[in-house]
């Protein structure tokens, strides 16, 4: 774990995390909490996590933020309120898991929150968690001795417009991910959890984007078929 000193000891900040695994949040909260800091990150998570009878009570007790596809403005406002109150709010700018394990295009929410609340964005990279559980592969929760790397980048002050701030955050996280990946290697060839450019069997970023688009289209068709009174599936939150 590197760069812990980049996290503010007090005051609000947007914790921006890359998204490669269903377990990213578990590791992304460690830099704020360990080394006698004791700070907790309030993560934004989709509504169905809160609706679950097991995870819902846990999420609410830890004061995480529910993201509802049909009322995104309320989630945004709740996050800004947390930030203004001095909390750390965890956000995945990619919105969904990156099947390529590279940095996808970013949504602008993290930047807009930081600007609205007047707090910095602190980039976080979690690497290795995709070996435990990622999209399209069975979970392997009991896999022993999987090394996990966590890197915290320098804070980015919200002094730019949202689009430019998002682009800067994207660039910073790309560079930070590359540094972490280089330090983590060497990589076994052909492994599912290794990016294509490093010799693995993960899809390229372009291939992964196509897969995501096909999945989104299938979900949209399913929602349309269900009709306005049918069940909805929240999107735009980690997953």
If you had to describe this structure to a student in words, what would you say it looks like?
- GO terms for molecular function: 1-acylglycerol-3-phosphate O-acyltransferase activity.
- It is an enzyme of class 2 (transferase).
- Residues 209-239 are annotated as: Disordered.
- One of its GO terms (biological process) is phosphatidic acid biosynthetic process.
- This is 1-acyl-sn-glycerol-3-phosphate acyltransferase.
- The protein has eight helices and six strands.
- By secondary structure, it is an alpha/beta fold.
- The protein has one domain (4-226): Glycerol-3-phosphate (1)-acyltransferase, CATH 3.40.1130.
- A six-stranded mixed beta sheet has the order 3-2-4-1-5-6.
- Helix 5 (72-84) packs across helix 6 and helix 6 (109-117) crosses helix 7.
- It is globular.
- The two termini are 24 Å apart.
- 39% of the residues are buried.
Quick rundown:
The protein has 239 residues and is of the alpha/beta class. It has eight helices and six strands.
Whole-number mean pLDDT: 91
Number of helices: 8
The CATH architecture name reads 3-Layer(aba) Sandwich
User: Cα-atom Rg, whole angstroms?
Assistant: 18 Å
Q: Give the SSE string.
A: EHHEHHEHEHEEHH
Q: Tell me the domain tally.
A: 1
Into which percent range does the helicity of residues fall? Answer: 25-40%
Pfam families: Acyltransferase
Enzyme class: transferase
EC number: 2.3.1.51
Keywords: Acyltransferase, Transferase
């Amino acid at each position: 774990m590197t760069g812990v000193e980049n996290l503010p000891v007090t005051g609000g900040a947007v914790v921006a995390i890359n998204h490669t695994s269903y377990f990213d949040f578990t590791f992304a909260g460690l830099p704020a909490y360990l080394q006698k800091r004791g700070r907790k990150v309030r993560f934004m998570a989709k509504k169905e996590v809160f609706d679950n009878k097991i995870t819902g009570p846990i999420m609410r007790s830890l004061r995480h933020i529910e993201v509802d596809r049909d009322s995104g403005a309320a989630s945004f406002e709740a996050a800004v309120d947390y930030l203004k109150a001095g909390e750390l709010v965890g956000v995945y700018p990619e919105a969904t898991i990156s099947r390529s394990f590279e940095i996808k295009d970013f949504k602008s929410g993290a930047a807009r929150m930081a600007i609205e609340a007047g707090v910095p964005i602190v980039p976080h990279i979690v690497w290795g968690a995709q070996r435990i559980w990622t999209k399209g592969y069975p979970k392997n929760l009991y896999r022993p001795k999987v090394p996990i790397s966590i890197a915290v980048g320098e804070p980015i002050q919200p002094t730019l417009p949202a689009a430019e701030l998002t682009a800067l955050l994207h660039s910073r996280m790309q560079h930070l991910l590359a540094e972490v990946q280089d330090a983590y290697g060497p990589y076994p060839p052909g492994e599912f959890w290794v990016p294509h450019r490093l010799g693995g069997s993960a899809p390229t970023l372009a291939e992964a984007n196509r897969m995501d688009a096909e999945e989104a289209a299938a979900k949209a068709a399913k929602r349309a078929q269900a009709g306005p009174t049918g069940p909805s599936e929240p999107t735009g939150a980690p997953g």
